[in-house]
Amino acid sequence: MSIRPVAESPALSFFHAGPAPQAIGPRPGVLRDGLGLMPGMTVGLFGGSFNPAHDGHAHVAETALQRLDLDRVVWLVSPQNPLKDTAQTAPLAERLASARMWAPGPRMIVSDFETRAGTRWTIDTLRAMKARHPGVRFVWLMGSDNLESFHRWRGWTDIMRMMPVAVIARPGSLLESRAAPAARRFAGHRVAASEARLLARMQAPAWTYLTAPLNPSSSTALRARSRTG
Q1: 10-residue block means of pLDDT along the chain (229 residues)?
Q2: Whole-model pTM?
Q3: Buried b vs exposed e over 175-214: b needs ≥16 C-beta within 10 Å?
Q4: Which residues share a beta bridge with 190?
Q5: What single-letter DSSP state applies at residue 9?
Q6: d(CA 135, CA 154)
Q7: Biggest CA pair distance of the chain
């Protein structure tokens, strides 16, 4: 089923709004990622540093799994977020273990796909994922706190046009995120939350904003508590 919302809002000039250069990635079938995805599946891609993972991340993943009627949610643990300080990022193995603690069950998969694919930017990771798994219907997942700064991501408009996007409300960013540059730029492609179960089968650009009981956990707060004992 393909559903296209009305035409995009008038173009606005934002950071990294233009097309992102194509990166050379692995050929389809070459990369061994162990995800076990099959054509026809609906799969949420949930990226982040997970430094560390916490119940707020689990809240986003579980909300997306249920409200979007997904077959799987893949937690893409980044080797290093280009926008964050390397000195404050724990080793990848620790962050993978942290994510696995909060991603139980066969429908949640924790992956080091970015490391295996050799990608640095989300746009390149998603291109590699789609090339590796043709026929899988992907949805990019993120908390509303990330929507606020999404227009600063490399190739963010390419991401919006590459696959549907689901934004899950997070504390402290509800009002700001709804007025974010990305939300305004693609306002004409927003899908009502009542139609969220159809999102994975829609043609991009298409995005939705989901509210659910809010979870206040954050990696920043957990790291601060860890430093103070």
Answers
A1: 43 49 48 86 96 93 96 94 70 94 93 93 96 97 92 97 95 70 96 97 97 60 38
A2: 0.80
A3: eebbebbbbebbeebbbeeeebebbbebebbbbbbbebee
A4: 207
A5: P
A6: 25
A7: 52
